[in-house]
UniProtKB/TrEMBL annotation:
Substrate binds at residues 11-13, 39-43, 139, 243. This is Ribokinase. K(+) binds at residues 237, 239, 273, 276, 278. Catalyzes the phosphorylation of ribose at O-5 in a reaction requiring ATP and magnesium. The resulting D-ribose-5-phosphate can then be used either for sythesis of nucleotides, histidine, and tryptophan, or as a component of the pentose phosphate pathway. It comes from Candidatus Enterococcus mansonii. The keyword ATP-binding applies. Keywords: ATP-binding, Carbohydrate metabolism, Cytoplasm, Kinase, Magnesium, Metal-binding, Nucleotide-binding, Potassium, Transferase. Its cofactor is Mg(2+).
Length: 293
């Protein structure tokens, strides 16, 4: 069984659904409130695990009651949790999400996720060297991400870097990752002022721009290739769609599938995920995704 490590955020999502998004100084009455397990790192780990990969999560939670639940949830999803630290006197990460018409607005409070330091990840180098792929996002400190990209490059470990939420990072790190998967907004920030077609051409078979309802696009060295998304008529909640996409994309790469085939797997999985509420509840198992291809 292939091994993947996800190094990233673990959070609780506090989700309200509302028909009206309040303006500054305004109070509105919403429809529902629920908590869900979330955090981009944890969501991607769950997607990989449901895809049938042996997954190791490296992260941090606070010493509050949420922290225990967050770790329990990952264990119940068959994810190895030995590399998750509970940080005393820190709160666990949280995301505060408003959903209107299936789409979301999110405020994150990083909490313990912000304490994943270079020193902390160094403690697990021996374990990390055994991985077939390492998956990263932007909900932990940037200096830790930069260190990990350098380290994985030196140790010839494949990486998928999902630069979400958007943050600037030096081009030398983009050169060193195996795949980078920004959405259009993140692409615009990473490659300021450059036309998307030029950047795609500059990073053939590495830069994958996700296009929401349009699917995903990359350059294969000769031409642009668009891998279309599945049409979904009953969108319930798009939270975690990108995480499901990245987890299943990683599964395709681990199985030796082509880039286009791996992206098709990611698209099929995320189309299923958005038909349920909560970032993780809708993440499908592998058989279901293959059936939807
Ligand atoms: O990508 C979705 C995730 O982003 C949510 O689960 C929330 O935790 C936010 O961090």
């Amino acid at each position: 069984m292939k091994k993947a490590a996800v190094i990233g955020s673990i959070s609780t999502d506090f989700v309200v659904t509302t028909e009206v998004i309040p303006n500054q100084g305004e109070t509105v009455v919403g429809q529902s409130f629920q908590t869900f397990f979330g955090g981009k790192g944890a969501n991607q780990a769950v997607a990989l695990s449901r895809a049938g990969v042996d997954v190791f999560m490296l992260g941090a939670v606070g010493s509050d009651s949420f922290g225990k639940e967050l770790i329990r949830n990952l264990s119940e999803n068959a994810i190895h949790t030995e590399m998750i630290q509970t940080i005393e006197e820190s709160e666990s990460g949280s995301a505060h999400i408003q959903i209107k018409d299936g789409d979301n607005r999110i405020v994150i409070i990083p909490g313990a996720n912000d304490l994943i330091s270079i020193e902390m990840v160094k403690q697990y180098q021996e374990e990390l060297q055994k991985m077939d792929i390492i998956v990263l996002q932007n909900e932990i400190p940037l200096e830790t991400i930069e260190y990990l990209i350098d380290w994985c490059f030196e140790h010839k470990i494949k990486t998928i870097y999902n630069p979400a939420p958007a943050k600037e990072i030096a081009g030398k790190y983009i050169d060193k990752v195996t795949y980078i998967t920004p959405n259009e907004h993140e692409t615009a920030l990473l490659f300021k002022g450059e036309a998307r077609e030029n950047v795609l051409k500059r990073y053939p078979n590495k830069l994958i721009v996700t296009l929401g309802e349009q699917g995903a696009v990359f350059h294969d060295g000769e031409k642009e290739v668009v891998v279309p998304a599945h049409r979904v008529t009953n969108v319930v909640d798009t939270t975690g769609a990108g995480d499901t996409f990245n987890g299943y994309f990683a599964k395709g790469i681990l199985d030796g599938k082509s880039l286009a085939e791996s992206l098709a797997l990611g698209n099929a999985a995320s189309a299923l995920a958005i038909q349920a509420k909560g970032a993780q509840d809708g993440i499908p198992v592998y058989e279901k995704v293959v059936g939807a291809l």
